[in-house]
TrEMBL record:
Gene3D superfamilies: HUPs, Tyrosyl-Transfer RNA Synthetase. It comes from Taxus chinensis (Chinese yew). This is Tryptophan--tRNA ligase, cytoplasmic. It comes from the Eukaryota. GO terms for cellular component: cytoplasm. InterPro entries: aa-tRNA-synth_Ic, Rossmann-like_a/b/a_fold. Transmembrane segments: none annotated. Keywords: Aminoacyl-tRNA synthetase, ATP-binding, Ligase, Nucleotide-binding, Protein biosynthesis. The keyword Zinc does not apply.
Length: 158
C-alpha cells in the first residue's frame, strides 16, 4: 500500500508515531468466492462449536468444488484450484506445506478426487475444533476473572 508506506516515512518528521498496519485475508464462504459467510446461515461457515458430524456434513454438502462434473472429466482435465473451497481452506489450516503442495499437484492434475480432498479437510478441521474444545474446557472461572479484572494500563508514552 503506497499511502501507508508514505505515511510511515512522513510521520517521524512531523513528530508522530509511525502507524502500524495488519493485513489479513477473509475466509470464503463454503459455497464459493461469490457468497459470503453469514451468522444467520449456518451452512456458510465452519464454527468452533460445530461437532465432527456437523463439520463432515457441511464440507461434504456445501463446500464448493473445483473438480470436474464427472470422474471422467475430472481425471482428464483436473480440478480448478482457483475456485475450489476445500483447497483454499487447506491452504489456511494444513500445517504441512509439502502435503498441501502434493494435494494441489495431484488434485489439479486429476489424480486425486474431490472426495479425497474434502476428507482431508474434514480431518484437519475436526482436529483443530477438537483442540479448541479441549483448551476452552480447561479455562476456569478464576482464569476468566483474572483476565477480565479492571487494572491500570502502563504509561507507554510518558
Amino acid at each position: 500500500d503506497p499511502y501507508f508506506r508514505m505515511t510511515r516515512d512522513v510521520a517521524p518528521r512531523i513528530g508522530c508515531q509511525k502507524p502500524a498496519l495488519i493485513e489479513s485475508l477473509f475466509f470464503p464462504a463454503l459455497q464459493g468466492e461469490t457468497g459470503k459467510m453469514s451468522a444467520s446461515d449456518s451452512t456458510t461457515a465452519i464454527y468452533v462449536t460445530d461437532s465432527a458430524k456437523q463439520i463432515k456434513n457441511k464440507v461434504n454438502k456445501y463446500a464448493f468444488s473445483g473438480g470436474g462434473d464427472t470422474i471422467e472429466i475430472h481425471r482428464k482435465c483436473g480440478a480448478n484450484l482457483e475456485v475450489d473451497i476445500p483447497v483454499k481452506y487447506l491452504s489456511f489450516f494444513l500445517e504441512d506445506d509439502a502435503e498441501l503442495d502434493n494435494i494441489k499437484q495431484e488434485y489439479g492434475a486429476g489424480r486425486m478426487l474431490t472426495g479425497e480432498v474434502k476428507k482431508r479437510l474434514i480431518e484437519v478441521l475436526t482436529d483443530m475444533v477438537e483442540q479448541h474444545r479441549r483448551a476452552r474446557a480447561a479455562v476456569t472461572d478464576e482464569m476468566v476473572a483474572v483476565f477480565m479484572a479492571v487494572r491500570p494500563l502502563p504509561d507507554m508514552f510518558g
